[in-house]
Amino acid sequence: MKSSLTYLLTACYAAAVASQPTGSSDKLGHERSLIQVGESHIPIWMMEQEVLGLIRSKKTFMDITGNNLLPAMVYPTEPRQKAVVQEIHQLLSPDSMRIFLTTFSSFPNRYCRSHYGVKSSDWLYNTVAELIKNNRGTLNRRVPHRRISQQSIVVRIEGQGNLASEVVVVGAHQDSINQANPYMGRSPGADDDGSGSTTIFETLSALLRAQYQPARSLEFHWYAGEEIGLVGSQDIAQDYANRNVNVRAMLQLDMTGFTDHSGNMGIVTDFVHPELTQFTRQLVHTYSNLTALDFQCGYACSDHASWSKYGFPSAMPFESNEMELNPYIHSDKDTVETVDFDHMLQFAKIATGFAVELTHTSE
Ligand SMILES: *[C@@H]1O[C@H](CO)[C@@H](O)[C@H](O)[C@H]1NC(C)=O
């Protein structure tokens, strides 16, 4: 989670969404247009020639360049895979999450430009590799970034059938920061965002142990460099936009472990996709014992904003509806003792619901 200092920059976001991604005009200076060919299709940046090709092949479409709108998408009106999801829920374990997070928060820090941030990323990569090693059809890769030494990590469970090219992403960020002393200061980052990293690891672990086979491809992302400006997630979202990857939905989990035991949690309503957010509220209601309350987390508060920026639908549930409930983040006090693994378990249940409901069938 990035701090709220950037609230004032909200207006810039509208400009960023409305503007074209880097490299969107060709060497001749010809502009591309953002074209959408159907409600559940991801808009694509096209050269004039490609647009003319659509016309010649009698395809109808809208030019939504500069509309400043996320794509209209249709999600299930309610969760429909309860039996499958609830069976996988049995495999989620707060104890396993505690073991994972205890090691992950024991590096002096996970700052994305420090030696420790590379070490922690190596540990995460090896731990993920160990988890998936007996699962054919599940691949992992590291994504290097030009400006930071820490690498993002991507795991993909390949879908089967005609929907395999569509992708559902579940993400968290792996880096931490001690804002007083990033390189040498201690930043366990247990909640920010060790909790999200742990939650999605446990979700992946349960899906693999259940031998869940998605129809759409399902990816788990651990982003590098969130704290210094969403560096890892922007690289990846931009790459997916450039390759026209059809991302059907992205769920970001950034801080899932700190709670005042009110039974409440937050649903971010700004810089997210409204319909996907509505579906996520229903997942909370169906699959957790928490009450979802809306709140705004501000410009670029976490990696979901990178996906929105490149025109992909994203949603973000949060540990509380109060953004600054946890007073310890970005310091040496964000330790494993301060997070609640039963609270995190609820988020693993929500993430499992998200993954299964959106990859299971053609809806
Ligand atoms: C939700 O369930 C967990 C156990 O899984 C429990 O520890 C927690 O208190 C429950 N929360 C609410 C708000 O009922």
Description:
With 363 residues, the protein is α/β, with parallel strands linked by helices. It folds into two domains: 8-63, no CATH class; 82-360, Zn peptidases (Aminopeptidase, 3-Layer(aba) Sandwich), CATH 3.40.630. The chain is built from ten helices and twelve strands. The chain has helices at residues 10-18, 48-56, 82-89, 94-104, 115-132, 190-209, 231-242, 274-287, 304-309, 341-359; strands spanning 33-36, 44-46, 62-63, 138-143, 152-157, 166-173, 217-223, 246-252, 264-268, 291-295, 314-315, 317-318. The chain has a six-stranded mixed beta sheet with strand order 4-5-7-6-8-11, sandwiched between helices. Strands 2-1-3 form a three-stranded antiparallel beta sheet. It is globular. Residues 5-29 have low confidence and may be disordered. The structure holds 2-acetamido-2-deoxy-beta-D-glucopyranose. 2-acetamido-2-deoxy-beta-D-glucopyranose binds at residues 263, 289, 342, 345. 2-acetamido-2-deoxy-beta-D-glucopyranose binds next to helix 10. Its cofactor is Zn(2+). Keywords: Aminopeptidase, Hydrolase, Metal-binding, Protease, Signal, Zinc. GO terms for molecular function: aminopeptidase activity; metal ion binding; metalloexopeptidase activity. Belongs to the peptidase M28 family. M28E subfamily.
